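Exercise 7. Predict the joint structure of the components listed below.
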Amino acid sequence: MPRNEGNTVPDSGTEVPRYAGSHHFFRGPSLEQVSNFDIALLGIPFDSGTSYRPGARFGPSAVRSASRHLRPGYHSELEISPFSVAQIVDAGDVAANPFDMEAAVVSIHQGASAILSTGASLVSIGGDHSIALPLLRAVVERKGPVALVHFDAHLDTWNSYFGASLTHGTVFRRASEEGLLIDDHSVHIGIRGPLYDRLDLVTDRRLGFQTITAFDLQRLGLAEVNALILKRVGDNPVYISVDIDVLDPAFAPGTGTPEVGGLSSRELLMLLRGLSNLNIVAADVVEVCPAYDSAEVTALAAATVAYELTTMIAGIRSR
Amino acid sequence: MPRNEGNTVPDSGTEVPRYAGSHHFFRGPSLEQVSNFDIALLGIPFDSGTSYRPGARFGPSAVRSASRHLRPGYHSELEISPFSVAQIVDAGDVAANPFDMEAAVVSIHQGASAILSTGASLVSIGGDHSIALPLLRAVVERKGPVALVHFDAHLDTWNSYFGASLTHGTVFRRASEEGLLIDDHSVHIGIRGPLYDRLDLVTDRRLGFQTITAFDLQRLGLAEVNALILKRVGDNPVYISVDIDVLDPAFAPGTGTPEVGGLSSRELLMLLRGLSNLNIVAADVVEVCPAYDSAEVTALAAATVAYELTTMIAGIRSR
Amino acid sequence: MPRNEGNTVPDSGTEVPRYAGSHHFFRGPSLEQVSNFDIALLGIPFDSGTSYRPGARFGPSAVRSASRHLRPGYHSELEISPFSVAQIVDAGDVAANPFDMEAAVVSIHQGASAILSTGASLVSIGGDHSIALPLLRAVVERKGPVALVHFDAHLDTWNSYFGASLTHGTVFRRASEEGLLIDDHSVHIGIRGPLYDRLDLVTDRRLGFQTITAFDLQRLGLAEVNALILKRVGDNPVYISVDIDVLDPAFAPGTGTPEVGGLSSRELLMLLRGLSNLNIVAADVVEVCPAYDSAEVTALAAATVAYELTTMIAGIRSR
Amino acid sequence: MPRNEGNTVPDSGTEVPRYAGSHHFFRGPSLEQVSNFDIALLGIPFDSGTSYRPGARFGPSAVRSASRHLRPGYHSELEISPFSVAQIVDAGDVAANPFDMEAAVVSIHQGASAILSTGASLVSIGGDHSIALPLLRAVVERKGPVALVHFDAHLDTWNSYFGASLTHGTVFRRASEEGLLIDDHSVHIGIRGPLYDRLDLVTDRRLGFQTITAFDLQRLGLAEVNALILKRVGDNPVYISVDIDVLDPAFAPGTGTPEVGGLSSRELLMLLRGLSNLNIVAADVVEVCPAYDSAEVTALAAATVAYELTTMIAGIRSR
Amino acid sequence: MPRNEGNTVPDSGTEVPRYAGSHHFFRGPSLEQVSNFDIALLGIPFDSGTSYRPGARFGPSAVRSASRHLRPGYHSELEISPFSVAQIVDAGDVAANPFDMEAAVVSIHQGASAILSTGASLVSIGGDHSIALPLLRAVVERKGPVALVHFDAHLDTWNSYFGASLTHGTVFRRASEEGLLIDDHSVHIGIRGPLYDRLDLVTDRRLGFQTITAFDLQRLGLAEVNALILKRVGDNPVYISVDIDVLDPAFAPGTGTPEVGGLSSRELLMLLRGLSNLNIVAADVVEVCPAYDSAEVTALAAATVAYELTTMIAGIRSR
Amino acid sequence: MPRNEGNTVPDSGTEVPRYAGSHHFFRGPSLEQVSNFDIALLGIPFDSGTSYRPGARFGPSAVRSASRHLRPGYHSELEISPFSVAQIVDAGDVAANPFDMEAAVVSIHQGASAILSTGASLVSIGGDHSIALPLLRAVVERKGPVALVHFDAHLDTWNSYFGASLTHGTVFRRASEEGLLIDDHSVHIGIRGPLYDRLDLVTDRRLGFQTITAFDLQRLGLAEVNALILKRVGDNPVYISVDIDVLDPAFAPGTGTPEVGGLSSRELLMLLRGLSNLNIVAADVVEVCPAYDSAEVTALAAATVAYELTTMIAGIRSR
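Solution:
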């Protein structure tokens, strides 16, 4: 893709104070401020799929606010100036109904489809993990089934909670059952913590997932884990889903179901960068729960992950 | 009622440290530890009716914990030793389904009915305010319609949110429509803050409510407001519902929809005591949202209110 | 002023979740979204005039966020629907230079003038109190000298700090010296705390101020204090400046120089409403320092004060 | 006492930033920096007498830090410049043994005696309330028995906790038994909350105390309560003991045993000022527990109370 | 041991919300709810041995609360379903006297002995580290001297503080002197931070300890450190004592004497799992101080460590 | 340097509680308490060079307070008893003017020169990073140009913010331009996060810096990075500047411009120790912003770094 002349870029942090002005992601433009765009960040403030600490409904707002910390000009590890090579916009929030999961799923699906229908790429900011189902549906409608690269402390392939089929702990079983994921090319990274049952892992494998635990990462190292992911995914279209609880609670206390023994933010960023040559079709960052955050550390981690994903996609689109 | 010989009383705070031992309300017995009881405190950890900050699902647990601060032996203003004149128990929590409002309403109704069917009085600890509908249903089934004395910053008589008929902001319109409240004997105290619409107050009056705002209280004083409430209620059976946001956010920051300009905790306690001669048939304390609390001040306020209500009912029952 | 047909109004809190969508004040429109407007709220994120705890630069952002709590439709005490009788907009933030007080003063002056030149009224959200000097300059240029109604714990009429003539503690001495205030019609309300020197009060009186302390308020009551303010101000054009530290730290911990013994938020709101028949030409709310806030109580108090002031001005303009 | 020429005064807050320099009380001199002194503030970081939340050992350090907020030059309500009429010093901390109550009591007694033996007045900063026993012993040794004016949520006249005779809840029973208090001239103000037993109040009265509850204050008003205290105390030498939990948790969350329904800081300051003509021989401020504080509001309240007491004593000594 | 038929297992987290119901460790049964048991968790809310930040008395309560996060069904790294192979119970709290160390030591000793006398294994939750002395006494009475595997930032082998022989910093010198530890088979892991004196390490070695610092761990890696521990311990009976401050303050801020440069929670969990073939006779987790915690990260780390230890012991007992 | 007989040492933490007594760095003496000294710690409470979150003006006070956690007697990794081999003092704070950068720079320069002129070494505690310019000027005046070893998340070699030439993000460009740094011997360690522009790195290299990113550290390991630093620095005189944001926000949330993906505190301490044979002429620790800290973790990290640096210098001076 040629450089998008006339891009609307973020305000300069050396000319307009970062605590002033735009509240959009990365202090960039909103969808209304541009005529066309390449990548949209979409807020999905919805947490009715939460089993423990609720509050991820405030996630998009917190991540936008924390993204003011960043200087989005140039990513020196990826060697990309994302706003130069792509028009990136904040597409606002989906007004998902907090009292009706079914209605919310429809709204999220529609919101995502509206963006994808323009040919733009989508990076969604949750919200709890249940939002990944309508997001995957919208993506798969246009791109076909995807390989899921799933960073999380939890498998999220349980069958149901309290009789509910769609929650933040069952989302990828539903996705798998609906045929949204390519068989045997998906992978969980960062899994840890006890399980409800010994069969949880068996079921998960039968659904087509490979699991790389946080402890595997400690034993194998970053390079080896990166190779495992690349091998698993192959050249399939990829959806990256980052549950911020993949990070240790030290790095991301502001989340609904924290689990000790997790990744450092440095490990997560380096693993993500190892995926920059994949065919990434969409991505999400979910489960930021600001009421439990402290000094914005979780929201900042999520904003940085969103920036990584956005920059990676900008790089892919501009090749 | 004669003194209930053989009462199981709370552990002595001068013999067993208050940070050790029982986690039940007021460090008293659980329902399983007694053969019969006069008053039950019931936790209702449910917050799927919340429109803004969720988290009242952790309310019962926080109020139990904060109730360890209290020395429940003797209430010197009411001159009652509640555990001496009544067997008070912690009836545990209703396991309300967070993903299904309808199922939750049924569970709460059943949980309350199970207690009321023994002849005991019920003090419920929420949870968001939507729980008051099934609680009122259970109470009215046994006692007939009630006069509602409602302490709150908000009317809670809106019609619907996002199409949902039962939420924490619509609960008393539903109650009124179902005939659970005696016409023209209910009253809101502590109302303040802007409204969605000029008609909100008109509708509210048409539903049979009188409104005493927080500013009325400032102008009229405690004694006058107490007289207004007593006059409004008459000798009808009374249900007292205390939304902790009736307190100013200074006194109760840990709630979902705080509103400045509210009551002090001293005002609330004195207003409640002024109701101690009413025919109180049940009560609730709702909307404690611990994630926004600080040093337990909100949970402690709620625990103290629960203790006031429990003591008042103990006094009424023992007359 | 006739009702401004075609007003752009805030999103409905019963249709779009309040934690989603607009981040503008009261969830209303931005200046860009309307063709003309009656009242503008202007953020002034500047705190280089702070002597103790800095951080009021994050005030406008925090007040915007907290204003999502409000339902701005109808003010039932003032009996005004502000967005129906006036077009209210969020005019964004002045990009004041944090490293150059002189440059910042010019930017703020220009930002305010740009709004006032349209004939609109201005409600500014700070920022530390030093911003009141350029704001007064801009107002006085168009309206002539004003009577200042100043709610604050501190006089803010000291001469200098560390040799600096303009700081948040000297702002009204500068204003007085520049002739921006009408002689003997200005008043401080809420003053308390020890002073640097016995002469501070003498100087202050000589500069033309009357002082009503927080303790005077306790002794005299709200009605009497309101009468004193009205008498002092007369029918002069009025500038209302609310330093959020006029509230007790219990009600507003998130501020730079808290002082115990202050007003409750109920007192402040009622005092403000008592001024609704004055000729208010502009107003500000300053000194919200979010890093010291807890559960948004201070930001919410400031947002509510801003809503009061905005509604009062809407009422005055629509008469 | 004539004005003490050559006083060492606090650093000027307009010349040396208040966040820099001296960490002594009110940014004044330490005992080592002056040749003689009139009033000493003594830190007593000891909390081994605490029954619930420990941590008052960090009280003196937090109150010193918070006292930097104050401008100690001139008290405009009392019309006294305390550092001009008296040499006020920070006498440091007593190194009380946290593992041995008996040894700690001896150290505190000695520390206080060392100051009193110079003829200076003593204002002690706790620490938990158990420290008042050795403080009273030291005072009474020199001045004879005193009338106690005791601001607190709790009576502190229980008999024992877990068999221990001296704790923060039994301190004034011990003081009474030792004859440190003049019969029938002591008074508790601010009492509230439930009691262990109906007899607690009877015992308390028998020990010679009058009780003015927080609710009495609401009913009677400040002027009437002040009159009651003055009448009770008469012209006896007075020891003022302020447990910071006399304030409502909204105003003082950072304390070990908070109790809702308490005083506002404005009420407390005005009650104290009403005592400025008494024969105050010593005073303490206790039970600040910084781990539960927020934005220093509790420590600032305590520092302000300490400043009031110090200024009152300076006024008395300079008459 | 064969599977204990009729086990009482924790409530299912997919049927009863984890924020509702049981407050026992891991949401399992209390001692009263079972007829016999294999492993007991015992709370020891005692912190009178603390030299700096007190508050570990609230540790057991916080760890119980945080253990609701866990899904205790199946430990996938150890491949054990602990509640299937062993009856695990919450034995409640020892009511240790906060005002009398000697009495507290007796109570703790008796509490532990009562459990051990049934043949069950004991996992204790503190409380400060001084509790390890009576725990070791009770264990050694039944099992003979033990090899201590001690995870901590500090040696805890100092001689005395302020003349006190038993504090949280002297506990293992006392244990060594009493012959509770097998000579030359004990090991500290995670030591760091400056020492009082150069001789501290010499004395420590003479008492029979080996020291593996946090920096040794960085240099040697997990596998090598695990080998060192196994070699040191041999096949002796092992007591594992985990001071939560072995973790870096990033992972465990809520503790009394934090020390930077510590372990990550992932490192700690993996080191513990490396010990799963040892002859573990008892264990403790101490020094959780909730007042300094944030979003439960410390309490959750401690609960997870307690779950690891419990599962390891369940595995050992079921072989 | 021979052992400094008659040194004044910190209070013993086993005799005087660490929460009592001295508030000086490491609980050691102040400058006034000794006749001469070898190393001075100097507080520089100044933050007017801050571009985002202000508040580092409270850094020196917080670091002093947190340094009470340490037992400064013996550094077992470096095998040095710093207070035995050198007289270490707290030189208090520079009273830098918060309203005038130029004046502040002069004050800081003078404050540092006054210490250096005695022949003592200087460890400065900020304050924001802009203070490093006057500090370097003072050092270079006496020692000539230095090699800078700069631990930071950011380059701090930007040209200007809002037209200001000296801010915390431009300080080392100014230093380089002034010839304060030896060409091609300086190094940044820990750099990460996006940049304003692709040229930022080019400019930085042209100014004579080498950059070792946080990700380089992950890839190369501690030993390799240490070798790189030693090679870069050679045997030149070294100034070590530690911006606490070199640590990940998990380890240091309390800072103005946090950046995820940073160092652990263990990594930082080990890297520092690897420099203990360098010719260190001065050092600073900056950017601790306590308002965003939690449980003192950031301040404790900074205090520990200051202790490392002080001990290293003590070792160098005593050789």
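Discussion. Chain E has ten helices and eight strands.
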